[in-house]
Design brief:
Elements: E1 2-17, E2 20-34, H1 37-49, H2 52-57, E3 67-76, E4 89-93
Antiparallel strand pairs: 1-2, 1-3, 2-4
Length: 102
């Protein structure tokens, strides 16, 4: 098996911030051991969808679905020290396309 580092991007996540519901996206690094890049991507997406912490933060209704995609993938050398990689999610506020000036 090979080791991969994946940068995942989540979008359209409705969350409560300071008492208001806001649309947020996030980036999250993941280290996955898999036989192929496609298998690593599927495992990473599955991990995000089954993350109980993320589920508890999300306020989306079924008709307003979220999206999780692979942003970047790197194949790692077996000697790579993956302990240096921050695996936490970094959230950002999503703007609608017509709010680009804000």
């Amino acid at each position: 098996m090979k080791k991969y580092r994946l940068l995942m991007n989540g979008s359209n996540f409705l969350m409560a911030v300071d008492g208001k519901t806001v649309r947020q996206g996030f980036f999250q690094n993941m280290i996955i051991e898999a036989d192929s890049p496609k298998q690593a991507e599927r495992q990473a997406i599955s991990r995000v969808w089954h993350d109980q912490e993320l589920k508890s933060l999300t306020l989306n209704l079924p008709q307003n679905s979220q999206k999780v995609t692979l942003h970047t993938l790197w194949e790692l050398d077996v000697a790579y020290d993956d302990a240096r990689i921050d695996m936490e999610r970094t959230f950002y506020f999503e703007k609608r396309w017509w709010e680009f000036w804000k």
